[in-house]
Amino acid sequence: MTSTKWVYAFEEGCAEMKELLGGKGAGIAEMTRIGLPVPPGFTITTQACLHTLENEHEFPTDLWLQVTWAMESLGDRMERAFGSDRNPLLVSVRSGSKFSMPGMMDTVLNLGLNDQAVLRLAEKTGDSRFAWDAYRRLVQMFAKVVLRVDPGLLEAVIAAERSGEGVDTDPELSAEGWQRVTRSFKQIVREQSGREFPQDPWEQLELAVHAVFQSWNGKRAVDYRNACGISHDLGTAVNIQAMVFGNTGWDSGSGVAFTRNPASGEKMLYGEYLGNAQGEDVVSGARTPIPVSELGEEMPEILASLIRIATTLETHYRDMQDMEFTIENGKLWMLQTRTGKRTAAAAVKIAVDMVDEGLIEKAEAVSRILPEQIDQLLHPRFDPRALQELEKSGRLLAKGLNASPGAAVGAVVFDADLAHRMGKEDGKAVILVRPETTPDDVHGMLAAQGILTQHGGATSHAAVVARQLGKPCVAGCEALKIDLERRLFTVNGTTVNEGSVISLDGTEGRVFQAALPTIEPDFEEEKDLQKILRWADGIRKLEVWANADDGPQATRARHYGAEGIGLCRTEHMFLGERTAVFQSAILAAADNNPAEFQRILDEQLLTLQRSDFHDIFRAMDRLPVVIRLLDPPLHEFLPSLEALVEATATLAAKGDTGDEYQEKKRLLSIVQDMHEFNPMLGLRGCRLGIMLPPLNKMQVRAIFEAACDAALEGIDVHPEIMIPLTSHVNELKVIQPLLEEVAQNVMEEKGITISYKFGTMIEIPRAALTAGEIAEMAQFFSFGTNDLTQMTYGISRDDAERKFLLAYVEQCILPKNPFQAIDQIGVGRLMEIAVEEGRAVRPSLEVGICGEHGGEPDSIEFCHRTKLNYVSCSPYRVPVARLAAAHAVVKEQKEKEQLVPA
Amino acid sequence: MTSTKWVYAFEEGCAEMKELLGGKGAGIAEMTRIGLPVPPGFTITTQACLHTLENEHEFPTDLWLQVTWAMESLGDRMERAFGSDRNPLLVSVRSGSKFSMPGMMDTVLNLGLNDQAVLRLAEKTGDSRFAWDAYRRLVQMFAKVVLRVDPGLLEAVIAAERSGEGVDTDPELSAEGWQRVTRSFKQIVREQSGREFPQDPWEQLELAVHAVFQSWNGKRAVDYRNACGISHDLGTAVNIQAMVFGNTGWDSGSGVAFTRNPASGEKMLYGEYLGNAQGEDVVSGARTPIPVSELGEEMPEILASLIRIATTLETHYRDMQDMEFTIENGKLWMLQTRTGKRTAAAAVKIAVDMVDEGLIEKAEAVSRILPEQIDQLLHPRFDPRALQELEKSGRLLAKGLNASPGAAVGAVVFDADLAHRMGKEDGKAVILVRPETTPDDVHGMLAAQGILTQHGGATSHAAVVARQLGKPCVAGCEALKIDLERRLFTVNGTTVNEGSVISLDGTEGRVFQAALPTIEPDFEEEKDLQKILRWADGIRKLEVWANADDGPQATRARHYGAEGIGLCRTEHMFLGERTAVFQSAILAAADNNPAEFQRILDEQLLTLQRSDFHDIFRAMDRLPVVIRLLDPPLHEFLPSLEALVEATATLAAKGDTGDEYQEKKRLLSIVQDMHEFNPMLGLRGCRLGIMLPPLNKMQVRAIFEAACDAALEGIDVHPEIMIPLTSHVNELKVIQPLLEEVAQNVMEEKGITISYKFGTMIEIPRAALTAGEIAEMAQFFSFGTNDLTQMTYGISRDDAERKFLLAYVEQCILPKNPFQAIDQIGVGRLMEIAVEEGRAVRPSLEVGICGEHGGEPDSIEFCHRTKLNYVSCSPYRVPVARLAAAHAVVKEQKEKEQLVPA
Fold it and tell me: Is A802 within 8 Å of chain B by CB?
């Protein structure tokens, strides 16, 4: 009978075993394997965790036996014994799942100590202060993590002791102080949990392992996984490792270091070190550490080792690493390594540099940049001139660490709940300001524009999470004095109340008391990004087009790399100062005055539209331009029913029934007549074109006059006329010949022939279901996935987000907001049907997408798999889409490679 | 080389050759074949027509040669010669396509006459009046049909001649009179058509055949085919037949006769005869004929022959026949036979009688009743007591022929265009009143509730078409004096103006000057119908359920044969006097007062709903009852936004801002908050249930309390709870367990267990596309094809019918109104997907339809083919659906038989 192997010594694992050993366990095993100085230990597998959770918290058979053997073997190596009072083996217990979830899982240090062993430790090290400090840490962490005692109660004890001894920081506390603290801790444990702190080290271990397992299903962890889309079926491993101590004096300490600068990407050892401290002290941000580079002044050999190890690890993993280390009495120990999180700018620079260094291939570089990171790089920054002036004018409040780059403006808010409420629910811009952040604050950080902390360094919780979320963060801004009671902070004599607007410059670490203007990033200047995108262009198969309604937008789209215009919304050309003209046309039509209607079209709107189109054709020389004919219902261009009812009722009640009243009354009657209960499913799109043909004919004339004029000027034009809202092929059979005739007439008048297409939006479910018929008329399809989603899902977007859709997403009733990422099994199935059946009838059919999904990476991958010709998105999203389209190819190739035996 | 056979002598054809020879040609051929007295002749095929129309009106090669041979052979048989002046062969030329289209196609009689032949005919018959009458008929018909001369000009000549001679009717006109008339006709032909009336009989024949061919594409014919769903690709045949004359004196005449009474179905020879007249005179209704039974007084042998022939034909065709005959100088000639049109009541009686007589099988009887005919039988009639009283009170205006049964009430309208405008476009009830009707009036007849004519008998155009359309008709009401100029009619001293309301009793042939109350038909008393429906029940596979919202409706549904309730709309239970209670609940919810909301639910609405459900369960003992949880958005129960804006604006303008204003203002703010741009796609159905669970919980409690109480009383209850508007299976995963828990609790409280199901509407496209997932939760599906059509087609029904949908159907952009008959390729495809994928996951899945399509025959056939378990429709449509479901089986079996070789 073979029993399951639940426990792996670090020597038995490797980097590829993340699924079984967790990320941390696999990292430690790999470091062990390549000969780095790692304290010995072993990992309990994720399988053991899952097994335990599924079996009412009962450990699987054999697990404890295997743990016991592993502990004995560990004791032998360390020449100590777990549970021994005389020569106690102390271990750390740390969780570690497949994906890194900073701060989400729990840790217990110094396990193995008890009332007897602490005395022996003090005796053996000759450092009673250290021994009692170690013991109180065990009791403190154990109480919090395993026994769920309120940590505030424990912190209060230490604060009282500090003030009793008259010192500022923990390292200054005396041995007796820590002994008193420990005694109080045990008292609190007894009162709060109803049990004694366990003196038996084996009992400590068993309870700690259980606690780690259970924390996998803790609310924080579940929320985090939901937010990040991580599966709940992975479980966490438990790493048990011989303790090394960074707090045995000033020749000891702990640190974290990145192999490259995670903010800029610069190749340098970047990190922080805190003397006489354990690792937890660095991450918590309670004391502000020194840059790791300054370690060279005190311990040059250690720094040199660290740099050597950094190079070894980077070469080994072919990626930037985030390392944790401890120095115990002058000896360097590596505790962890993992792929380091980085800003978007750093990600791009590192990827490009590593290609240059020959570490990785171009496709690998492309696939390492997340599409969202591109988006961050293209986000606005503060105007540098405004920044300078503000600094001069003294409205620079403070400087802190530039923990996460970017610009944020918002109202100061002092707690995460309020930030969530104001930011997410009310849609206000807020800046979360905290002494330091904890995992309990993540929902507030998500809702905030930026984060400002008083304490903590570049690797503090606030900094790490902010970088991951792409939010600007200024950390460790010690000049701030935050008063949570009075809900304000003071800095250099200035008081800032909750609700006041400040600006955060995460790139430079500055805080301003003002709402600063922002400017566009200069895409041209992002040389590394340009390289990545060119590499992506070489990989992707989807073309990337853009939605643009005028010349400037088209120019910007092209600047960002758009290879065509996938959607030009002509109704936007009837807005602003042109609304009055268009209204007069609508009223003429409503009055059954076709001559006047036609006159306004011919004499006014035709000229305006022609000029708009001409600008776009000029911007898009050689590239296709898809122009959608008028789509919205006409009443959208008239005053609202509600406003007119109110105005006429008011006038009537005042007895004022003169000209104004009569005019409003007439307008009201027209608007009432045009009113629809569900305008989205009403008289719009090609239905309007069919019921009122002069409108579409005028538009097609304007398009072809502009296109022919541009062609005569030497511009290579490719107009594609898109007929919206088709539900039945007969609609195209009625309207398309009318419009083709206009096109032919204009080309004859202008004496030039240009290439053009007629096609349709696929945005009604029936159009997708009958795509074969529709492709008999349409030369191209463009998926209008906004409307297609609304109708397929039966959800009116504008109404629903406010009324139930966001609640649905929050309660996980819908896995995602279907207006952000295509609902692949519902809406996507209709798209697949349309592509397949449309191309079966017309193999040359050009198919694209012009809904907002065209710029969303998962949706782009779906479009690639569904074999669309292009995606079209907003100009700003074009670079994102170029990258996402390349990712889709890389992912597909990887999947294929996994299917094909080597 | 074999050439196509374009011409078939009557001896060469048979009844099965309708497609090639047309209905009339096949009928004549069959009569010839079984030895009845038929004037000899031949048929030019429908293929010849199609060929000619497709080839720019050029006859196919050989056609004319074959016609020439056939004419020569006909001349030989008749011992006359076509084109001979001395012994001229006269023929009729009649159209006849596969399907009968009364009055739609054209006829020319007496072809072969000319200026010379007329003299010879007069000489030979010794009847110069007859000869000139025959010649003027030829010129008159030829002018109208072939040369398209305005027939009014010709009629005016005859009217002038009548008044010149001082006679009332045409048969009284003298030979000289007809000679003068003929001369004038030729003059008019010359002036109007720019050519002489052709003297060459062969030229007459060629032009007449061309004219018949072309009339296939005439506007009237095309409109009729569109209206009746007849293919445009059939073409018409041309029947050329030796003339026999009913107008050679008073021992001659023409008649039409049915083998059974087409109004009641009674087995008797039923028809009309007009002495000294050609067939056209009978049909036109210009003179009122005598019943055919009275023929026995003058010509008993002829009547006996006719009865013998009727029996022969009925036995031969196994169906009631509609025969045309002519008596020429005492000899009976059969001109045509075809399946006779009949009223719904007659159809049912004839079908049942023929089964009893052993003529047909039950399945054949069932398949002969059209579903629409059932509907007619269940239409309301006038209350007989009200009728009696009216007759006593002298408001019976007149009696005419009971040409088509049923009751109609509406405003008098004197022309078809106005009837169409008022009836179809304005939706008003109108009665079309005409001296007589022609095919040009059909659009007005379609739009009218009923038809009243001054002239014409039971086989006049008005009567035949009205019976076909199922519209009540009183014909030949000679007491009426219609004044089209002044737009009124007078009758027995009473003047009725256009626009006045009258009532028509088509069953008894009475006209009343009043709007009469109507009563329901007594379904129980329709014994023959009951037989047909029981036979249908034995054939069909679909169950027929009904939509019913309360006890009385459920009782009625069961009375009509419903086997379950497929849709009980619970929102109807919140209307009427209960609206105020439900409003107070909504306001409590809007005010964030869950306690008050719950209190109103528990104390008021629960009791009301429980009592409603109890009534329904009692009515549906042993049968399933599908109850849909609240579906519409809550704002539908509140005053409209528009009304509140107007009310508050008016009060504010008057400075009246007291309590009423405050109350309205509060209501307005709630209504504004609830307002949705597209409420159909908004917060309704299960979305409401999820956001506001107490509502659905109260409903489920009411259902189960009622069901358990009923069960305790000994009623066998089968509630099925239907959750509306599901778009994602997770919605069911959230709400269904909550509701199942309520169900379990109630059953425990009541101490009884009942059988029940939970299921969902499939009315959102995505639900159909993900039916496999949804079937994991739902035990039944019910297609809500109203909403499913709205979303799949992107059409808001209420808005669209007014704005573009009816125009689309009229312009044939949509083949049918998709809200009347299921759009099988779009919406239907989603249904097929849902059935297949739902049953794949849950083989026991019960699937039905509860949209309005559930009572529409084509849609029912589709549901049968798609293997639904049941259709659910309004109680009145249940009998229709029972029959249609049987038809679907019969049709399917016939299709299978055609596929399997015998």
Answer: no
Beta strands B718-723; B624-628: pairing state: parallel
B766–A827 CB contact, under 8 Å: yes
B371 and B883 in contact (C-beta within 8 Å)? yes
Would you say A678 and A586 are in contact if contact means Cβ atoms under 8 Å apart? no
* Three-state secondary-structure class, residue B602: helix
- Note the pLDDT tens digit of each residue in A510-542: 899 888 887 777 888 889 999 999 999 999 999
Which tens digits make up the pLDDT trace of A433-443?
Answer: 999 888 778 78
Would strands A107-111 and A91-97 be described as parallel, antiparallel, or unpaired? antiparallel
**A-contacting residues of B 491-520, CB under 8 Å?**
none
The residue of chain B with its CA nearest to that of A823 is B766
Q: What is the pLDDT of residues A731-742, one digit of tens each?
A: 999 999 999 999
Q: Tell me, yes or no, if A766 comes closer than 8 A to chain B by beta carbon.
A: yes
Cβ atoms A440, A250 nearer than 8 A: no
Is residue B646 within 8 angstroms of chain A, CB to CB? yes
Q: Which residues contact A559 (CB under 8 A, 6 or more apart)?
A: A523, A875
Can you give the pLDDT at residue B259? 96
The answer to whether A614 is a known catalytic residue is no
Helix (H) or strand (E) holding B158: helix B151-165
Contact A411, A437 (CB under 8 A): no
Residue A814 in contact with partner chain B when CB distance is under 8 A: yes
CA angle A789, A793, A795 (to 5 degrees): 90
Q: Which residues contact A450 (CB under 8 A, 6 or more apart)?
A: A406, A408, A410, A431, A432, A466, A471, A472, A473, A474, A504, A506
Decide if A787 and B794 are in contact by the 8 Å CB cutoff.
Answer: yes
Is A316 one of the annotated active-site residues of the chain? no
Break chain A down into helix, strand, coil percent, rounded to 5.
55, 15, 30
Per DSSP, A873 falls in state E
| This prediction's pTM | 0.80
**CB atoms inside a 10 Å sphere around CB A749:** 12
- Give B-chain residues touching A798 at CB under 8 angstroms: 677
- Identify which of A730, A792, A798 has the shortest CB distance to residue B677: A798
Could you write out the three-class secondary structure of B175-237?
HHHHHHHHHHHHHHHHHHHCCCCCCCHHHHHHHHHHHHHHHCCCHHHHHHHHHHCCCCCCCEE
Residue A793 sits at the chain B interface (C-beta within 8 Å): yes
CA torsion sign for B360, B366, B367, B370 is: positive
Looking at beta carbons, which residues of chain B come within 8 Å of A792?
764-766, 769, 791
**How far is A289 from A388, CA to CA, in rounded Å?**
29
Length of chain A: 902
- The Cα angle at residue A321 between residues A320 and A322, in degrees rounded to 5: 135
**Helical spans, DSSP H, in A168-299:** 175-193, 201-215, 219-228, 279-284, 295-298
- In this structure, are strands B253-258 and B270-275 parallel, antiparallel, or unpaired? antiparallel
Instruction: In whole angstroms, give the CA distance from residue B836 to residue B853.
Output: 20
